[in-house]
Design brief:
The chain is an all-alpha fold. The protein has 18 helices and no strands.
Amino acid sequence: MIQATKKLLSSRLRPQAKGTVLVLLAVVMLVNALSYGIIIPLLYPYAARFGFGPLQLGILFASFSIAQFVATPIIGRLSDKYGRKPLLLMSLLGTSGSLALFALAWSAPILFVARILDGITGGNITVAQAIIADSYPPKERSKGFGILGAAFGFGFLFGPALGGVLSAINITAPFWFASVLAAVASIIGYFILPETLSTQNRKTVHNEPLFNFSKLAKALFLPVVGPLLALTFLVNTGHMVLVLGFQTFSVDVLQLNSTQIGLAFTGIGLVNMIMQGFGVHYLLKKGVSKQRMLIGSLILVIINLVVLAFMVELVGFLIASMLYSLFFAPQMIVITQILSEKTSDEDQGGMLGINQSYGSIGQIAGPGIAGAVALAFGAPAVYIAAAVFFVVALGIVKWSGMFEKSLKSKSIDI
């Protein structure tokens, strides 16, 4: 009986339970992306009502990422202590509450409170990844991570359009819609989502500290794990530089209007969704190694970014942008899968939370770097700046020996 119970609660669920878990997690990612996608195009006009200019808006964006940087390792560690389900539900309810507060805001400070609250409770991606690690053996996790990425891409694909439609009713209507969606997802999760973390694994970390900054720094020097965390920072920074560069380049150089930019984002999001949801898993099934996939992805992204810097013709620019989305898609899936494989079962939440923190640092740094480069050297130079981060990432993969060490090392405790 004990063995049966342990097996049920352990990291390997039955196929039917795995399917249920994956569908629910996909819904969670969809809620995340819709919330983010709905907010982005409306954030500036809504914040402008409170006297926000570009500088204040940038600080508002940063407040979310900074709060998330601090909170995600703590949420991940709490999920290692108390289970995945309660922390996932708490994160969803936090998202719901923050969006409702944003819609109700009566002053500028309340906008900051709402975004910081969303950042503090924004650990549902970390917990969802930990659930995938609990539910699937290492070799099968890429499928789960890919489905999560595809669900996020699907939500981000339609979020801006949905926000635009709902804003015709009232500018706060999209925030209320996203808030209700997150609340409904938490209710569904409460009744349907099984707990995937074994009691045994929870006990082994029960008396350990939740989080400290020294651990965040020391993780960079762990074999295999350290280079992976550095990669997470570099590819997220490079990607965020590219995102801001895309908007600057499309307006200042190509002089696209908002409708054309929205259609471009739709095409890019569709390519990313297909690649993350099906392409990466298909390539792995066909025998393409994670090492070859990651190195190939980095090389193609670097070439693509250099081409984008000199692309001044609209059709070519859009094609190159979609190719970037195709080439970039495997990177975080592969990095997350290797990191999960090389982390002990009881530390999945904590390590994936630290990984998300390094991603948050990149999301904080990227827009500032892009803005400074565009101001100093012009919009096309932003693509070259983004390429530099991917070149450094390629160097780490090639010369750190991380894949050779990965084959020899055992799971690492943090």
